[in-house]
Amino acid sequence: MGMATLGTIALSQIKPVSAFAMSLEGEALFALEALPYDFKALEPHIDALTMEIHHDRHHKAYVDNLNKLCAKEGIQEKSLEVLLSKIGSYSAGVKNNAGGHYNHSLFWKMMKANGGGLPTGFVNDAVNASFGTFDQFKAKFIETSKGRFGSGWTWLVAKDGKLSIGSTANQENPLMDVCELKGTPILCLDVWEHAYYLKYQNKRADYIDAWFNTINWDTVSNQLKLAK
Ligand code: MN
After folding, report:
1. Domain 17-109, CATH number (from 1.10.1660.10, 3.30.70.1120, 3.50.50.60, 1.10.287.990)
2. What is the pLDDT of residues 138-148, one digit of tens each?
3. Can you name the residues that pair with 190 across neighbouring β-strands?
4. Which of 102, 144, 210, 226 has the smallest C-beta neighbourhood within 10 Å, fewest atoms?
5. Ligand 1 centroid to 8 CA: how many Å?
6. Distance between Cα 86 and ligand 1 center (Å)
C-alpha cells in the first residue's frame, strides 16, 4: 500500500487543517472577498496572471496571516477600520497584514474594465480646486508613485475639505494612527513590484500610466462622499 491510511480513509481525503486561525467563536475575523471582476478584465493594462497571483496569493496571505495573528494575540476587533485606527497598539505583524488586507480590498474597487478617462461632477470640481487641473493632479500622482523607494502605496486623501497626494511605505495607510499621512482614502495605487513586475518588469512608470486607464471613478466618487 503506497499511501498512508487512517482506518480506511486515505490521508489525502482528509481536509487539511484550515490555513485560517479561528477566533474563540470558531470563525475567522476577516475574509477575502472575491474580485469584483474577472482576472482578465483589466487587460491589456494589467494582465490576468498578475491579477490572479496578486489577489489569490498576495491578498489571501495578508488575510490568512491577519486571522492567525489576531487569534494568537487575542484580538477580537471585527472592524478593520477600527483596528487600523489603533494599530500602533499591536504587533508589527498585525499592522503589516491588516494594512495589506485593507489596502488591497480598496485597490480592487479602484479599478474596473473600461475604466479611466476623466472624473466628472464633484470629483472633477474637487480635483481642480486642489490641483488646478486634472493633468496637474495626474502629474503629481505619477511623480509621487515613481518617487516611492521600494514597496508602498500612493494615496489621494481628503482631509479638512481638501485633497492631497501622499505615499506610504510597505502596507501603511492613512487610516493608521501611526501613519504620517492622514485622511480619508479617495484613490490608491499599489506600487509594490508584485503589482506589475510580470508585465512591466522594472518599468514602474509604464505600469502607472497604464493603470490610469483602469480607474473606477465611481469608487472615487463614493469615497469622496464618505469624506464629506
Ligand atoms: Mn499588492
Report:
1. 1.10.287.990
2. 999 999 999 99
3. 153
4. 226
5. 43
6. 23
